[in-house]
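Here is one such protein, fold included:

. . .
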Amino acid sequence: MVEPRGPSRLTRKECKRLIIQTESLIETKESTRRVLQSTATELDAHITRCNIASTAGNGANIAGTALLFSPFALVGVGILVAGAVTTAGTGITQNSIEKSYFNDCKSALAKDEQKTAEYELVVDAEQLKKIGKTVFELAKGGYQFV
């Protein structure tokens, strides 16, 4: 393997440290992506279920209201109450679950932001130039990148 030399090149130790930190950053980014993707899928299914329940509750409200003006007024009151409870319960449940999903996403993004900030403290513009020069020298010397 060709080993670049000179003060503008990275040492083997610096390369290993950067590789470890880059791999850690990539793992964090992948974890964040998985959390966000999973949350989006679960939230989509949850919203669909809530919409179905809310529609059923609203339909019961309409039916109960219509029955209030018929000889079956007592039945209409029961259906109206059931529809109202279903609609209200769906709204409360939806808000609670969405808040939980929001907190999960917020936590994952905060970890991602922290890891990125840590990485940026280590890898500055000067080191990026060194990385570029090192890679160029290695390629020029015949090193085969996979």
